[in-house]
Amino acid sequence: MDQHAKGDTGISEQRDKSQSAGACSLCFNNAPYVAAFSCGAFNANLMSPLILNRPFGTKSSLVQNCCFTLAHVGVGLCIYKSVHQRKDLETYKKVLISATGSVLFNYGTLLLLANVKHYLPRSQILRCLTGAGVVAYMFWLGKEYLGEPTDVNQVD
């Protein structure tokens, strides 16, 4: 029995797929920008702790943790949709590769900035700009390396 005989045209099913694909596409397309901002804010605060302490006061550690978590999620989503992920891999392996890459990237950035901080003068502005510049450069380099992202619908 076909769909027309049952009275179901499949339109609602197509609408559900297109809405979920739109939300997923929105998430994957905006994740790099959220990750760059969050990682930049976290690392700028690492270089100059007054960045988040002044506006947020006692809540600054919560904001730092949120920024660091968003940086992990954003970088992980970038790696997940990259052209380097093979299409024949199972989803859990793609997630493991993405999570590992995200942790290595974010903690590598922290290690780099912690070492750079010791060689810079004690100028808060210079340290803050250096932290944001290093993050911007690393995201630019990652974008150049990863190349053109694949279509989100073709990933799985």
Outline the structure in words:
The chain is mainly α and 156 residues long. It has one domain (31-150). Helices cover 80% and strands 0% of the residues. It is built from seven helices and no strands. Helix 3 (50-56) packs across helix 4. The radius of gyration is 20 Å and the shape is elongated. It starts with a helix and ends with a helix. The chain crosses the membrane at residues 95-113, 125-142. Keywords: Membrane, Transmembrane, Transmembrane helix.
Characteristics:
single chain; 156 residues; mainly alpha; transmembrane; membrane; transmembrane helix
Topology order in helix (H) and strand (E) letters: HHHHHHH
Q: Number of domains in the coordinates?
A: 1
User: How many E-type strands?
Assistant: 0
Largest sheet: none
Low-confidence parts, pLDDT < 50 over ≥5 residues? 10-19
Instruction: Write down the oligomeric state.
Output: single chain
* Principal-axes shape call: elongated
Keywords: Membrane, Transmembrane, Transmembrane helix
In short:
This protein is mainly alpha-helical and 156 residues long.
How would you summarize the topology of this molecule?
Blueprint: H1 3-6, H2 11-47, H3 50-56, H4 60-80, H5 91-119, H6 124-146, H7 152-155
